[in-house]
Amino acid sequence: MVTKVYDINKDVLKYKFDYNEKETNILKSRMNKKQNITIDDLRRISLWKLNRTLNVDNDTLTNLEIIAKDNNITIDSELVKNTITKLVESDGIGFPMASSILKFIRPDIFPIIDIRAYRALFGKKIYSSQYTKELYIEYTKELYKIAEKHNLELFQVDEQLYEFDKVNNKKI
Hints:
The chain is mainly α. It has one domain (21-169). 56% of the residues lie in helices and 0% in strands. The protein contains 8 helices and no strands. The radius of gyration is 21 Å and the shape is globular.
């Protein structure tokens, strides 16, 4: 296939730019000639360029706040299950991202699930189509067992499995 190169004398630029339209419009209105640029502004632009913007409804944000405060919350609670579902149904969030959000809010309850840590634990690669809420909960309970057996904090276990996989299994 031959690549067509734009010719300033012949070609007309009449295309509709529709890349991530909602976020593009938000960024254009917020950033155009903005004089107080923050690192969060740059992060948002970076996520836009990577096409990794997200949108979460207010109910889900409220659930996350409750999870952050509730000392009696468990991985099996209905609020947690509902929140996981709502997160993965949100724009730009899959199970690895949802688990990352949850881990940073409650590292004592939620580990990150990703290809490397999962492969280190179960000996096989997981594909995005295979993630489910039930699989995440099962994975989490396995990490609880490892944390208890090796006297580790939960937040350390997924990180250690990730590093274990990098050292022992190399490329994904």
